[in-house]
Write a structure and sequence with these properties.
The chain has 283 residues and is of the alpha/beta class. It contains ten helices and seven strands.
């Protein structure tokens, strides 16, 4: 009983009610790595994290794109850096974590945003296409989380992991996406496992599940077309009409939730998934 009482009453810096909202949102002194940060949700999250005071390493497998993205955040000067890496390659991930620590001295926040997707009907799906999406969306996210968590544990003062899943983590949204939907279900499962295992070290793990959004990647995906029998443009047009708010998400609306989960406003949120879909799943 004494041991349980001690655990229940142990004070933490985040437990004191006299901290202001501004202070709880302040990420100054913290370092974040954002994968897939060249555009879309990743860039939106990186921009908002920097605005909240964090030093941010933007990462992407496309060097020219991530360099340009970092240039768009030049107002934050010394708190922005970029690095090239493919999260499906373990050595690249190790290099990205090392780059953040070498550049900024520590690592406090990981945003697993990098994702792969395409549109292939189940009966025509080659195994390598299915596996390739899981390599990025699941195995890549796992290795990023594992390596980032090792650094956070070594530092000894906790941290935050935010996985960008999708409403496909909860319910399939369209045909031809079995590999993507499977990967997002798996990423949500991984999020809960991370929360369970890393929570004792003060590392919180949560997910953001965006609904349809016309990011640069989505536009490229639509333009690329799909196998015969799948009308991607119609799928996306129908998606907007299913949202009670009658519009797609702005990537910045996802970035804001990432900052919330990374901040001390979410100090007791662990193993949760916040759906940001304008009500899409209600339909």
């Amino acid at each position: 009983m004494v041991r349980l009482a001690a655990m229940a009453t142990r004070p933490t810096p985040d437990a004191y009610p006299d901290r202001s909202i501004a202070d709880l949102l302040d990420l100054e002194g913290r370092v974040a790595v954002v994968t897939g940060a060249a555009q879309g949700f990743g860039f939106a999250a990186a921009r908002r994290l920097a605005e909240a005071g964090a030093a941010v390493l933007l990462t992407d497998r496309r060097g020219d794109a991530v360099e340009a993205a970092a240039g768009r955040l030049a107002d934050h000067r010394e708190r922005i850096a970029w690095a090239v890496g493919d999260v499906s390659v373990a050595d690249d991930v190790d290099g990205l974590v090392s780059a953040a620590v070498e550049r900024f001295g520590r690592l406090d926040v990981l945003v697993n945003n990098a994702a792969a997707y395409s549109n292939v009907r189940l009966e025509e799906m080659p195994l390598d296409r299915f596996a390739g999406v899981l390599d990025v969306n699941v195995s890549g996210a796992f290795w990023c989380a594992r390596q980032a968590a090792r650094r956070m544990i070594e530092q000894g003062d906790g941290g935050a992991i935010v996985n960008v899943t999708s409403i496909d983590a909860l319910h399939p949204t369209s045909r031809g996406m079995s590999h993507y939907t499977t990967s997002k279900h798996a990423l949500w499962g991984l999020t809960k496992c991370l929360a369970l295992e890393l929570g004792p070290q003060g590392i919180r793990s949560n997910a953001v599940a965006p609904g349809p959004s016309l990011t640069e990647g989505a536009i490229e995906y639509i333009k690329a077309g799909a196998p015969e029998g799948i009308d991607i443009e119609r799928q996306w047009a129908d998606a907007a009409t299913r949202v009670p708010m009658r519009r797609w998400a702005d990537p910045d609306e996802i970035g804001r939730v990432v900052v919330f989960l990374a901040s001390d406003l979410a100090a007791y949120i662990n193993g949760a998934q916040i759906v940001v879909d304008g009500g899409y799943l209600l339909g």
